[in-house]
Specification:
transmembrane; Citrate transporter-like domain-containing protein; mainly alpha
Length: 458
């Protein structure tokens, strides 16, 4: 029995990818019987993945599953139809499955190594290094998402050994987490952005200029504050971390990345328009083909094949957290929408429909409090969009979308139980609550700027 369990655990990627592939097939060729099969497979995936999920996601899964079953029972629907309510979030899991391919191209093309050289160049003080490391993390995040955090923190840990431990920990947790959060708000591969685009019906290209504006304002303010805070501390680096930066070569690498991102966005939008697909599905379909073509154009096909297979298999085998979260959330959301409780939950939002600024502030508070007590932003957003959709006719959906994205991703710097803060805590040997405390003012500023832009667009 133990050998069977270990075999399944090692080969979860096969079961996951097969299920998600069949799901995408039904998007193009709808079939009720196959959809029912997908629902049954979703239930099976929850049962198989539950043991491998972290305690936080197990709790969230139990809460959403139990509540969803209560709502489903309340509707009086026959239990035989339950599988039809299990796969509404399957597209999100499909996106998470292909994301490692984009990361692998960046690794194969060695863009991550080139950009990390920015942090190894000679700097006079921590103030200058703060800005430089923030820029590096920001650029990497646009392509390799959360992996940028690990790469940047590893370089900073090794290059700042001569800095007092307390200062080093604060410096690393501030510059990397903040740059990551600010870069994620416009990244087309960020799951929060994809969910918001599909849930509000606002086109990604309509959101992009405002998200970039918010990102630019927040990161600029953080650079000013960070440079002033750390400029009094001199950096003594060893020879390996005191390299001369080839500015021309670095600029060329950055231009290549920006051009690749622009082409990727164009293809995503074109695919969605031609095939009439949601933004999430468009990104999911484009990433594999785009990654392959990009690797070939860079003449890094062999490296991509090796790195891509290893990363994809490893990352897909570790999707248990998101599998139990998204599939249980599907049951909860689908069942709730069929009950009268759905209307009751909407009332607090509808009560403030004449005072939209209060609704925008309330959205930020919900995400912030959720992040502080350990509720994942994706879980919050899944419930939130179920109850604020009636407001689209009263409040500009563009404003809601901007506030939801900025508020949700601001929690990446303060969620003591979140992935990003937990990773930083492990890398710096720092209490996660200390990281939360240090970044709380930034998170509030981030959310406030998002609210200001959203209010301006009302």
């Amino acid at each position: 029995m133990g050998s069977v369990i270990n075999f399944v655990k090692r080969n979860l990627y096969i079961l996951y990818s097969l299920t998600f592939t069949i799901y995408i097939f039904t998007i193009f060729v709808p079939n009720e019987n196959i959809q029912y099969l997908i629902g049954v497979m979703a239930i099976l995936l929850i049962l198989i993945s539950f043991k491998g999920a972290s305690n936080l996601f197990k709790v969230l899964c139990l809460i959403f599953s139990f509540s969803g079953l209560l709502f489903y029972t309340y509707t009086g629907l026959p239990i035989i139809q339950l599988p039809f309510y299990m796969f509404s979030n399957m597209s999100l899991l499909s996106l998470l499955t292909v994301l490692p391919l984009m990361t692998s191209v960046v690794h194969a093309g060695r863009f991550d190594r080139r950009l990390n050289e920015l942090m190894k160049g000679k700097v006079g003080d921590l103030g200058n290094l703060y800005v430089r490391s923030s820029i590096t993390t920001y650029l990497l995040t646009g392509f390799i998402n959360i992996s940028a955090l690990t790469l940047s923190q590893e370089v900073l840990q090794s290059s700042l050994q001569n800095i007092p431990q307390k200062i080093r920990k604060i410096f690393i947790s501030k510059t990397t987490l903040r740059a990551l959060a600010v870069a994620l708000i416009w990244s087309p591969t960020e799951i929060i952005v994809a969910i918001t685009v599909d849930s509000t019906g606002i086109g990604y290209l309509s959101l992009l200029p405002w998200l970039l504006l918010c990102s630019f304002i927040v990161i600029s303010l953080d650079w000013i504050i960070g440079k002033r805070s750390f400029r009094s501390i001199t950096v003594e680096q060893d020879e390996s971390m005191n390299q001369k930066i080839n500015v021309k070569k670095m600029i060329i690498q950055i231009i290549k990345l920006v051009m690749a991102l622009a082409i990727f966005l164009f293809v995503v939008v074109l695919t969605g328009s031609m095939l009439q697909l949601s933004f999430i599905l468009s990104v999911s379909l484009v990433i594999p083909v785009f990654s392959l073509c990009w690797a070939i154009s860079l003449k890094r096909w062999k490296s991509f094949k090796v790195i891509g297979w290893r990363n994809w298999k490893e990352r897909t085998n570790k999707l248990q957290n998101f599998v139990v979260l998204f599939l249980s959330l599907s049951l909860f959301s689908s069942s709730l929408s069929k009950t009268s409780f759905h209307d009751v939950i909407k009332q607090p939002f509808l009560a403030f429909s004449d005072n939209p600024i209060m609704i925008l502030i309330f959205i930020q508070v919900v995400f912030l409090l959720g992040g502080l007590i350990g509720v994942h932003a994706i879980a919050t957003i899944g419930v939130l969009f179920e109850v604020i959709q009636p407001l689209y006719g009263m409040i500009n959906p563009l404003s809601i979308a901007i506030v939801v994205i900025t508020s949700a991703l601001a929690t990446a710097t303060v969620g003591a139980y979140g992935v990003t803060v937990t990773m930083t805590s492990a890398a710096t040997q720092q209490n996660p609550y200390r990281i939360t405390l240090n970044n709380l003012p930034f998170s509030l500023l981030f959310g406030a700027i998002g609210i200001s832009i959203g209010y301006f667009l009302l």
